[in-house]
Amino acid sequence: MIMNRKEQLNEVTDWWKTAVFYQIYPRSFMDSNNDGIGDLAGIISRLDYLNDGTAGSLGIDAIWFSPFFTSPDYDYGYDIADYCAIDPRYGTLEDFDKLLEAAHTRNIKVMLDLVVNHTSHLHSWFQESRSSRDSQKRDWYIWRDGRAFGKKPPNNWRNNFFGSAWSWDKKTEQYYLHSFLKEQPDLNWSNPEVREAIAGVIRFWLERGVDGFRLDVAHIYCKDKKFRNNPPFFVREKIKDGPRFGDRTFMANIMKLLALPELQIRKYNQHQPETHEVLRQFRLVFDAYPARTSVGEIIAEDPQTIASYYGTNNDELHMNFYFELLNCQWKAAAFKRCLERWERALPAGAWPAYTFSNHDVVRAISRYTSSGNEDSRAKLLALLLLTLKGTPFIYYGEEIAMKEAKLPKVSLKDPIGVKWYPLYRGRDGCRTPMQWDNSLHAGFSGAAPWLPVNPDTEKCNAAAQEKDSHSQLNFFKRLIWLRKDLPALLEGKFTSINEGVPDSCFCYLRETDQQKLIICLNFSSHRQEINLTRANGYSGMLISTNPGRESGSITFPLTLEPDEGCLVEFSSVK
Ligand code: NOJ
Question: Which candidate in 213, 243, 393, 541 could, as Cys together with 114 as Cys, close a disulfide (CB 3.0–4.6 Å)?
């Protein structure tokens, strides 16, 4: 059997560096039993769409599953009541084993969501912890006396959604800490018993054969030992070389203003040095099994802080997302600056992970496009994501350019929706059912889904796009399958190019000793000329987002259409 370049590389390198990941939000992917909620059997039935081994399928290599463990769903699965059981609405452990086997048969790896900063308040550990002050598990969570004779919480910490991070427990007359909802009490990571219990959870899934974990909010596990008050926002020190105000989206700024009373510098309840110790311990657990991986959801504005979670000796997380990339405006300079900062901050040997969309943010296509440029911009984003140096994560539906759904208030489910922030509709808009076809409920379910289907399904669905050779889906497929055979994309160096590139374009080189690729992206709504005078040879255009562009030989200057992106192979570039 002849191996493609990716298979050859996987023989010698870590599979997760060359993989394309796909995030599934299980509640919304595919419902097999018509209860309106997606499930594991539904996912199995759609695995061939993701990768059946041929270029007719999407071709992804790994799936990150948002949680499907037992949960009362105050935060839709991110409040776990039993780490080692599948919530009955999604299936059983047996179904999980079937899913794992079905995925592995197709060479798809499986990554689970490790949500262990907090549990559900219904987890037996918390139930026991709150039962009395003398409970054996009292110290598994963070309990403190209040100030002012119990009338005020122990300190000024706010949770990450809205309000105080402390809730009063009437029975035992103490406050407990929750960095999110009061139904999500924080585990006490200073307690060695907690660390051992979670290591046991990790081993449970590794033994079953899962290939890795995404670590939910890993930067907030450990808290200041003295529980000092956080300083208010206005005394915030200016972060040196920090992101410019202009990089933030307009809406994000409005949100910040509206949430002003909530803002404080989270000096004492995140990024504590002890967390690195926990992650080094996790890494030892992962490394006891062959070829496992991890990716951190680490939130910080400055790239150095995020980069510190790779560990001083690459002994913490295998990969980390860089979320500042999601805040870039639609400007070549914004993306370029952001990526260069991140590249500079990465320690030697550290491997990045990239994404533009997930279950917490407005879908990228809706952040970046307006009517008329959706198609070209969605393709340009796909080209950027899949040609950067790092592991790309596609969010379900992104491959068909699914948009953020504008849902009526009555349909909203997310606890942080309209309830607290007047202009913010929460995260439901990016979690609507996958749009498989134009049948009832978009082919997702035979029953009314838990969130309404996006009304644009008639125009945007996978079945229709399969048939259209110029669709977003077919662009993704071509690019993903092409990538598997391009060593420079899989393992090459990244260098941005300035000379001959107008300000409104972002061009970069990906290269190995054998191959040089140039990616040219036009972020403007006008034609732009790229004049790479140093290029003294070429083999030609490999793929363009512009359906009218012919493949084959090209010469410079190269004129890019508005929002066009190209992947060009050079036989030599000085
Ligand atoms: C981050 C997750 O991505 C988000 O969905 C969740 O609400 C919080 N962590 C709490 O677990």
Answer: 213
pLDDT for position 553: 81
Tell which atom from ligand 1 comes closest to the C-alpha of 75: 7
Does residue 87 carry a catalytic annotation? no
117 alpha carbon – ligand 1 mean position (Å): 10
Is residue 433 a contact partner of residue 449, using CB atoms and an 8 Å limit?
A: yes
Spacing, Cα 295 to ligand 1 middle (Å): 14
Residue 559 lies in a domain: yes
Q: Which domain holds residue 516?
A: 492-573
Residue nearest to atom 6 of ligand 1 (CA): 78
According to DSSP, the residues that pair with 482 across neighbouring strands are none
Q: Residue range 58-74: average pLDDT?
A: 98
Query: Does residue 413 lie in a domain region?
Result: no
- Atom 10 in ligand 1: residue holding the nearest Cα: 78
- For residue 179, the ligand 1 atom closest to its alpha carbon is 10
Query: In this predicted model, what pLDDT tens digit does every residue of 394-413 receive, in sequence order?
Result: 999 999 999 999 998 889 99
356 lines ligand 1 (CB under 6 A): no
Considering only 16-30, 161-175, 373-387, 419-433, which range has the smallest mean pLDDT?
Answer: 419-433
Would the pLDDT of 253 be above 70? no
pLDDT averaged over every residue in the chain: 92
Residue 547 falls inside a structural domain: yes
- In Å, how far are 172, 387, 519, 573 from 514, measured between CA atoms? 67, 17, 17, 12
CB-based burial label for 446 (10 Å; 0-12, 13-18, 19+): middle
Of 139, 158, 186, the residue at which a domain comes to its end is 186
The DSSP 8-state label assigned to residue 146 in this structure reads P
- Confirm or reject: Cβ of 161 under 6 Å from ligand 1: no
Determine whether 216 is an active site residue.
yes
Please provide residue 400's backbone torsions phi and psi, each rounded to the nearest 5 degrees.
-115, 15
